[in-house]
Every structure is written in C-alpha cells, then in structure tokens.
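Proteins fold reproducibly. Next comes an illustrative record:
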Amino acid sequence: MHALLMSYLYENFELYNPTLTLELIVWSVCAGIVIGAVTAYLQRAVIGAFARRLIADGIDTPEKAVTVEEAGFGKNFLVKLALREGGSLRRTVTLANAEDFPPKAASKGGERLRRLFSMDEEPRLALDLTRARFYIPEEDRIRAELKYEIKGTTLGGLAVSIVLVIAIGFAALYILPELFQFLDNFLTSIRS
C-alpha cells in the first residue's frame, strides 16, 4: 500500500509526509465513523432501553420512581455508567430521592474545575445506584421518546454500516491518489 502512495509525485503540491500519510488520514476518519456508529447504536439500543422501560411502565412521578434493579437493569454496566452524574441518561431521567445522598467530597480543585467548565452550581452527589430511584417527568417524556427511539436502530444496520465504511476506506486509498494526480496534471497544464 505504501508503494502505491509513494509512486505518485506531484509537481504543484507536496502531499507526502512520512508522519502523516493519506493512509493514516483515511483510516483515522473511518475509525472515527465506526466509533460514532457503535456509540450511537449502544446509546439507543442498550442505554435507551432503560428510558423506554420507564416510559412504558408509566414511571412519571417521584412516587412511582424505581431503582435500576427494579427496572431490570441491575447488571447492565452501560446503563449504570450512563446514570452517573453527568452521564447521558442522567440528563433524561430525574432522581427522585436526591435528598438521601450527601454531596460527594470534592477532590483537590477537581470540583471547582468541573463547575467552571460545566456552569453547574450544584455539587455532585455520592450516588448509590442500588438505592437511587429514577423517573421521567411527563414534561420530559416526549423528548426522551425521541432521543431513545429504537426504530431504525438494528445490529444488522450497524454491521452493514461498518462494512460500508471499511469498503469506502479501501476505495478512497485507490481513488484519492488518482484524483490528486488528475488535479496535479490539470494545474500543470494551466501553468504551461
């Protein structure tokens, strides 16, 4: 592959740099797209299942609030991770018994730095997910339904997306050098 990229010499611009090659750029972009696709899938299919369960069961008031275990997600690491302070799911669900948890002890400057960048005045809570009770208020239900809608999110679609991104990556490694050569020849013909 490197011989293919090095075999193109351009008169009008220099693209080859040993530390930053076309191959590195193409595969970095592909890796970013794949990571984004996997993250989006996990967000909707796995993490969103907790929000969909609360909506389906009508858990919309503090009196009806349930723990992670009661909702059937006690062993789901990703849901627990998303429910931590500042997690994606935590911005959707509401903690019903916040008064039961004392503020978390601030680290050396870490809490002040977090508040500075997040504009959050409230201290973080030392949250125990075995006792924390969550619900989705009625006024946030539609937003939660749209955010975590499962429609169109399948494992097969994710696999097809990954295969397509890899195929496009390989195609780009062969097409881009030819495109650069065409552009270089065009610029050379204009200049002469």
